[in-house]
Amino acid sequence: MTPAHTATPAEEPSGSGSPRPSAPAVERNGVNPVPESERHGTPRGLFGVWFSWNVSILGVSYGIFVYGVGLSAWQAILAGLLGYALSSLLVGILAVGGPRTGLPTLTQTRIAFGFHGNKFPTFFAYLSNVGWKVTIITLASTTGAKLFARLWPGPFANSSGHETTAGVVMWYVVVLGVTVTIAVFGHEVIVRVERWIAWLTSVMTIVFIILIIPHIRWGRIGGAPNGSFAEFIGGTVLAMTLVGLGFLNYGGDFARYLPRRTPARGVIGWTAGGITLPVAVLLVLGVLLASGDAKLGGAAADDPVGALTALLPLWFFIPFSIVIVISLVAAAITGLYSSGLALLALGAPVSRAGTTVINMVIISAGAFYLLFVSDSFLATFQAFLALIAVVMGTMGGIQLLDFVRQRRLGWPVELAERAGRGGRNGRWTALVSLAVATVIGLGLVTSSDPNIAKVVGFLLTDQQKKGVIGTTNVGVLIAMGVGAALYAILTFVLRLDPRGTGPAGQDTGGGASGRAGSPGRGLPSGATAVRALGDPDSTRAAGERGKR
Asked: To pair with 518 at 20 to 30 A between CA atoms, which of 415, 466, 478, 540?
């Protein structure tokens, strides 16, 4: 684990009494707990990060996708809002672990899964991060290429008027370069940039909505029949995978710079609000557009951005296309930053900035598949979401339950270390719960992508794959429920809590009783952490440790 950061404290908000640095520096904190001296800000600052990430034209496409499950307009809106609210609330709750421990989310999950056991869910979390970045950077590149094809068709458009491969590649290089550069600087610069992007994209999105509303065919909206209850659940699950579940693995990455005593309700509220507000408004717009125009849904499946920008007049198409690229880059920056932390949590022997090189290679390969191999953006996108959501949702459910245990113990960061340093190499209760639920979940979901379909749906018959269970991917929720229930039974009912050992062989109870007396690789000891971080629950935690 990288050593604790000792550089100049990060920027404080105006009025805090702390000096501002003359120029932003590359963040040197990795997967170590952020020292209390570097904690700053209020939960309100989280809103801009998450808002700028989600105020994107993709939100309109999400509404079209949810409506495409087979629901009526009002059902699609309700299912989408329900899915967004539930999944975003989970992200907000898990983000509370950031200020309590100072650890990024995928390092804090070591407390639940063990130092080495955590590598399994972290690997899938990394795939989730990179997969989203592939999708977002690809869309940003094609959007820029379409803009050039329309403005300068000679060099940038082919005989059919579509963007050329050279144009897409050129924009891809630019988008990836900007994304990587800002992500390398880290938390402080990202928060600054995202704040300004949030304002810019908000204003332009409002104008976009005003211009798109006349394209809604109000007379046709009520024509679609209501879907079944199972289809409604399927729409809700799809909405959860589109927005919140993909963020579970890095909710605390930005909240960990907040002071330890930051109220949980503020972290939860501003995080969930920043995610839900923009996508909720855009969801309604997308549903209304799709319910009045069936062709728009099909066009959005192949090109979610191009299908919507085609509705705009040229005078607004030009600046809005640029803003779309900026908003997508904003989402890519935060995700690339977190994917770097995921690599460090996996044990990659490189610096946080160095992980960007690895990510660039992997993202390039994924973008090539999405641009030149996949026949349908929607098919590949939904297949990827369902596959990853099974593991991510289950991991999030287990981590959420383990928060109960961590809070009782005073949020002990040394339990994120390996055995012999205060933690546990693997906690079989969490790992068994995750493995069982993952197998069940993957066996109950399906994919329209022929390559991904080979590894999922093995618990379903051919008829069931085409039925309600297979087409709605309810297996994601089933996996979450099974994993959380099994972990709760093993840990809180049967009290089968694995035990770890400290440097001198002390019994740390895997977090259930006692603590290691020495920090390891940058992690402070439990007693030191409680005193230094001022945990308001430390007194009660000390009593609870003797009971378990």
From this structure: 540
- Contact (CB, 8 A) for 271 and 251: yes
Separation between Cα atoms, residue 318 and residue 61, nearest integer Å: 20
**Which amino acid makes up residue 104?**
P
The neighbour count for residue 517, using CB atoms within 10 Å, is: 16
Residue 461 has pLDDT above 50, yes or no: yes
**Rounded to an integer, what distance in angstroms lies between the CA atom of residue 28 and that of residue 352?**
8
Phi, psi (degrees; rounded to nearest 5) at 545? -60, -30
Q: Which residue has the tokens 């503020």?
A: 266
Distance CA 239, CA 275 (A): 12
Tokens representing 286?
A: 């997308």
Q: Supply angle C-alpha 312, 244, 142, rounded to 5.
A: 35
Instruction: Report residue 423: phi and psi, to 5°.
Output: -115, -150
SS3 369: helix
DSSP SS3 for 329 = helix
Residue 361 has pLDDT above 60, yes or no: yes
pLDDT in tens, 102-124: 999 989 999 999 999 999 888 88
Question: Which pTM value belongs to this model?
Answer: 0.77
What is the tens place of the pLDDT at every residue in 506-520?
A: 444 443 333 333 333
Distances (CA, A) of 71 to 58, 222, 234, 296: 20, 11, 10, 16
CA distance 344 to 366: 21
